[in-house]
Amino acid sequence: MRPAPTILHLDMDAFFAAAEQAAKPSLRGKPVVVGGLGPRGVVATASYEARRFGVHSAMPMAQARRLCPNAAYLVPRFPLYRMVSDQVMNLLGLLSPLVEPLSLDEAFVDLEAGGAADDSRTAREAGERLRRDILTVTGLTGSVGLAPSKMLAKIASEQAKPDGLVLIEPGTERDLLGPMPVRTLPGVGPATGEHLRRAGMTTVADLAGAGEDELVRLLGRAHGGAIFRMAMGRDDRPVVAERDAKSVSVEDTFDVDLHDRVRIRTEVERLADRCVRRLRASGHSGRTIVLKVRRFDFSTLTRSETLRGPTDDPAVVREAAARLLEAVDTTGGVRLLGVGVSGLADYTQEDLFAQAAVGDRHEEGPEAAPPRQPPPVQERPPAGEIRPAAERHWAAGQDVRHADHGAGWVQGSGLGRVTVRFEEPWSALPGRVRTFAVDDPRLEPSDPLPLVRPPEGQSSWPASRPRPRSPEDPVPEPGPSASSPGGGGAVGRSGGVGRSRP
Fold this sequence. Notes:
Strand content: 15-25%
Number of domains: 4
Largest sheet: 6 strands, mixed
CATH architecture of the largest domain: 2-Layer Sandwich
Number of helices: 14
Structural class: alpha+beta
Shape: globular
Oligomer: single chain
Radius of gyration: 25 Å
Strand order of the largest sheet: 5-6-1-7-8-19
Number of strands: 19
CATH class of the largest domain: Alpha Beta
CATH superfamily of the largest domain: Reverse transcriptase/Diguanylate cyclase domain
Helix content: 25-40%
């Protein structure tokens, strides 16, 4: 345990739902639920307005609809969430080289390692500055916990929610932890919690009072010893910077099983394009193309093909993924599709064999098949051209653009019609609503808009902060042998816990 509260834990507030509310002025202040909308869908995130009705993460969507029937139910828009997450992680990277992302909206930061803080005062200043910068850059709020250990920093950020900062002073951890339930500690899940309850231990103070020997007897040497140390407030786990990626992959789970072969292939090609964008943003190329298919019966198949050399050419990855799909029987339906690239390199080797996608195929799973000749790749229609009916699926919350009305999002669709609300994140008022035929050639899917529009000719990035390269920045086309670029408030609570709010 370090002598100063220089470990920071950031947790964005109701991240997916808050991003949707920021992107859609008509939903601000209203209950929003993000998740799978199909019969087996679950809640990914609920806005604070929806939580008042009892809706929470991991709840079956059908139950959420019963509790809060008037909420806006939207599918996740991961391109938007990744864009905002990248902005937040870039801000964290300015504080320290030691940033440990836990998810798109959560991370630990070692402030001491980056020289951003070495005592309570400077730690609080760094935390408050981070919250202001996040609001400026993304328009969203995050909660910050500061403490001398990772466990306590995470507890502090939970206490800070929503949109606050809590600092736990060293030496106060025993008093703070004592009355908390045992499930507060990392490593105490439902089964362990029930086991401890039957032994008469329901609070962290009970665990500390029982002693290490008793916890080892109940839970085993490794687990019991670790839980006892946590109960005593001792946590020496370091902040570990994100390791170099060994692969890049993307995947999508579908609310309703896909059966149409054309639609399945189209989804694979779109995933391949997304994967290459992430690959290039990371400054890598790769040799092995991987296709993942989860079928209707939950069986998961993996197919891979290794090229003669690394590539970051979207056409090569798209064609390889499409060939791999040919070896998979999808007649029963597909729940999930994924495309990945492994065998990463820091440059793109100009190899005619690789660019022609000639390589050795390695197949796994029950349906291995001999190599086949590459099938012809279907030309995807350019923007503005009517797509096949199998592709004209409009999901609630989806970004769209209409040739006459501009940017908007799908409110709902069915019976051959789609209803769109036309508004942008910076619209002063809720936008107008229009209904179209699902195959209207003037209506096209669109990329998400940024949540904050900077003044014309300016950037929303804080002027005092150096701007890092964004994964969304254009990536130069690689040439032969070229690299592929890839202030604080006063302590307001007893027990050493201080909370600040704007």
